[in-house]
């Protein structure tokens, strides 16, 4: 799961949203200024009110969701129009996705170049998802898609609700999610080598669904609390990975009763 790479970078280098800004070239997860008011008193400091945050971030959020819709559109188009080939190596696609994530995270570049790399990344996911059409009932995929949109919307509103009550999710919470994600990856690998992966799919899918739902809450809190210095590509990438992983776990959970 490539989300581990993005989350690891943001957790280790981004700091908490109440910390001082760090001069990272990629502009990921940097703290907002501390002199913002009016605000809600939290832990000795002030967290801006939700209305103030929206006023400050409305243009940035517009770019984030516009790019998110474009990238999901690329993935959906490739998934529905690409004829998956049996010889296509998912390992090579996965390694290429990791490479793109590292480039986006650590190599400073203009926004247009990051957009192109993100688009390539989205296309590779479309190729990977195209194989689902041969193994999963199309009705299940449609149900998983609708469920994914519902879960994302609900968790996004939950993230907003936390900010409404002045609850700030720190880097420690993100680190906990990262540890849980790494544990899920290790468990998947262990079950795969034990030859009992098909029997564990439903359980792992349920855990993954809950985990990535929490990632949406955390990323919403992070995007509104931190200053990305205009780097809407990185912010939309976090949401993109959340949505893709929720969809995959939804599809795995719905299709597992039919698996052998």
The H/E string reads HEEEHHHHHHHEH
The helix content is over 70%
What is the multimeric organization of the chains shown? single chain
Q: What distance lies between the first and last C-alpha atoms, to the nearest angstrom? A: 24 Å
Strand count, sense and barrel status of the largest sheet are:
2 strands, antiparallel
What is the overall number of helices?
Answer: 9
The residue ranges in which pLDDT falls below 50 over 5 or more consecutive positions are 11-45
Beta content = under 5%
Number of domains: 1
**Widest β-sheet, arrangement of strands:** 1-4
Q: Average pLDDT, to the nearest integer?
A: 77
Secondary-structure class: mainly alpha
The coarse silhouette is globular
Radius of gyration: 19 Å
Number of strands: 4
């Amino acid at each position: 799961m490539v989300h581990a790479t993005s989350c690891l970078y943001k957790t280790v280098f981004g700091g908490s949203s109440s910390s001082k800004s760090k001069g990272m070239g990629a502009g990921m997860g940097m703290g907002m200024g501390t002199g913002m008011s009016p605000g809600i008193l939290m832990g000795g400091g002030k967290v801006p009110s939700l209305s103030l945050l929206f006023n400050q971030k409305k243009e940035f959020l517009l770019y984030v969701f516009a790019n998110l819709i474009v990238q999901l559109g690329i993935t959906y188009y490739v998934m529905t129009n690409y004829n998956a080939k049996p010889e296509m190596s998912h390992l090579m696609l996965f390694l290429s996705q990791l490479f793109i994530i590292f480039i986006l995270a650590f190599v400073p570049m203009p926004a247009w170049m990051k957009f192109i790399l993100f688009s390539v990344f989205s296309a590779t996911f479309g190729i990977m998802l195209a194989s689902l059409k041969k193994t999963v009932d199309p009705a299940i995929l449609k149900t998983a898609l609708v469920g994914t949109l519902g879960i994302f919307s609900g968790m996004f509103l939950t993230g907003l609700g936390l900010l409404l009550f002045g609850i700030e999710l720190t880097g420690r919470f993100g680190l906990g999610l990262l540890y849980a994600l790494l544990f899920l990856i290790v468990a998947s690998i262990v079950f795969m080598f034990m030859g009992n992966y098909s029997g564990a799919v439903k359980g792992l899918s349920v855990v993954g669904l809950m985990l990535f739902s929490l990632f949406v809450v955390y990323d919403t809190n992070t995007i509104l609390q931190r200053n990305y210095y205009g780097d809407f590509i990185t912010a939309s990438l976090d949401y993109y990975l959340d949505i893709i992983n929720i969809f995959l776990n939804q599809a795995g959970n719905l299709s597992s009763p039919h698996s052998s």
